[in-house]
Amino acid sequence: MDADTTPPDVESTVSSLSLDAKVGQLFVAGFNGTAPTAEIEALVAERHLGGVIYFSRNVESPAQLRTLSRTLQGFVPDDGPPLLVSIDQEGGRVARLSWGTQQPSAMAFGAADDPALSARAGRAVGRELRSLGIDVDLAPVLDVNNNPDNPVIGVRSFGERPETVAELGTAFADGLQDASVVACGKHFPGHGDTATDSHRDLPVIDHDRDRLDRVELRPFRRAIDAGIGAVMTTHVAFPTVAADAERPATLSPRVVTGLLREELGFDGLVFTDCMEMDAIADGVGTVEGCVQAVKAGCDQICVSHTPEKQRAAIDAVVAAVESGRISESRIDESVRRVLRAKRAYGAGTVGHEAESETAASDCRAVAQSVAERAVTLVRDDGDALPLSRDPVSVYEFDATRSSLAEERRDDGGAFAAALSDAGATVDATVLDSGETPEFAASDGPTVVRTSDAAADPEQAAAVRNLLVADPSAVVVATRNPYDLAEFPDVETYLTTYDATPPSLAAVAEVLVGDREPTGRLPVTMPDER
């Protein structure tokens, strides 16, 4: 955004801010606890922090979160710009709020394949976030998940088809922004075709530019053309764009300024993924990485955890400007975008209890609709469905967290409870992922619920043992549809793409014959491994 297109009040604010205040506006910090820490208060009050990010560690209840948002905004210096409050509320296992606004995973939306439903979900989520004083949803995920071995994206993606991801992701973003919440598409230029989690190492995607245009970039182009307010960069190296096999996209001027800004024409906010992730921290380091990210063209630098690194990074960017390494005009460009977003989306406003309750109710209704339409019957070669309501032997696993981005909420036993609620008589067993017990065939039907068995050899081995004992056992994948590759001869296989309560309830109704499965796989099942 050029100065001559910036509203006069925004331009006058930029001119009035000190260098320290302007640099502070570029940073987004996280903190521990459900009340502000002394460190976060000091960053807001003394270092002019631009934004905060909430995680589940900050969340207790809607009332508590509204109070937290108001308290944090109260630390802003008189006449200073309000905080821009962000959260990762994608749906499925990446959802920091566990009540109304938690939606099924993006891949469940892909199985339902209804842009109008995606837009409705975005509006419902946005209304609830807005009522809680949250200005930015770090969603939707616009990555095209075409790698079954991807450990960090998977069901966070709408699927493997670029056009589906583009259409559903843009619809969700439009819904959020209709509710005055900034949508942030991620992870640019794409994290879908990796087998490495950037929380732990630096992935490299070396596809040529033609392939990137056809697949990875297509959803981002669509969302940018539709007016998405923010884009998050990824800590993945793209040698064909950055001309450097060891430089994460977040730190590359060729990617951020050249590709995203100049070529795709994006002039909204560019967020970084957390700069404490190992792909940055174990490379150039968090503090130096923040300097390079600003220099590359990023506007909102996320340092999510450590107060010492937050302060050091702000100091390092100030020093880089004072030394001439970064021009102050580069800082001003980002500050204009930040202030314009705060002005356009009403940053600093917090709703009331009645608004939160109404929005949460809407979110629950949408989530139920998505879940019911997403349940996918991949195979029923043995005509096992519907199950008889005789005693059903149910096995499920305590879920593990495959990525640090995820929450762990799908407790073992939840699926058996849902099946019982649907009217079945259940004999339930919860197994540890490392447990490989011997099974015996039962008199009634057997159902096993998997939770990312494709990434858990012990769990996969346990399911194979069960299928030897009872070849007619039904497998329900409640997280990763690719689990089928671990037991390709299973006769009956369903998938829900997540283990949120609406999804478990919907698949239980399918199993007992009270609902028809209508979902369609948004990904291709891999060959047997």
Mind summarizing the main beta sheet?
8 strands, parallel
How big is the Rg?
A: 23 Å
Determine the strand fraction and express it as a percent band. Answer: 5-15%
Q: How many β-strands, per DSSP?
A: 16
Q: Supply the number of helical segments.
A: 19
Account of the 3D structure:
The protein has 529 residues and is an alpha/beta fold. The chain is 40% helix and 12% strand. β4 and β5 (94-95) form a beta hairpin. The longest helix is centred in the last third of the chain and has 22 residues, at 353-374. The model has no long low-confidence stretch (mean pLDDT 92). One of its GO terms (molecular function) is beta-N-acetylhexosaminidase activity. Belongs to the glycosyl hydrolase 3 family. Keywords: Glycosidase, Hydrolase.
Write a short abstract of this structure:
Its EC number is 3.2.1.52. It is built from 19 helices and 16 strands. It has 529 residues and is an alpha/beta fold.
Write the layout of secondary structure elements.
Layout: H1 8-16, H2 19-24, E1 27-29, H3 38-47, E2 51-54, H4 62-74, E3 84-87, E4 89-91, E5 94-95, H5 106-112, H6 115-131, E6 136-137, H7 162-178, E7 182-188, H8 209-214, H9 217-225, E8 230-233, H10 239-242, H11 253-263, E9 269-271, H12 278-281, H13 286-296, E10 301-303, H14 307-322, H15 328-345, H16 353-374, E11 376-380, E12 392-397, H17 414-421, E13 426-431, E14 446-450, H18 457-469, E15 474-477, E16 492-495, H19 501-511
Helix pairs in contact: 1-15, 5-16, 6-7, 6-16, 7-9, 13-14, 16-19, 17-19
Keywords: Glycosidase, Hydrolase
Organism: Halorussus aquaticus
Domain Glycoside hydrolase family 3 N-terminal: 19-340
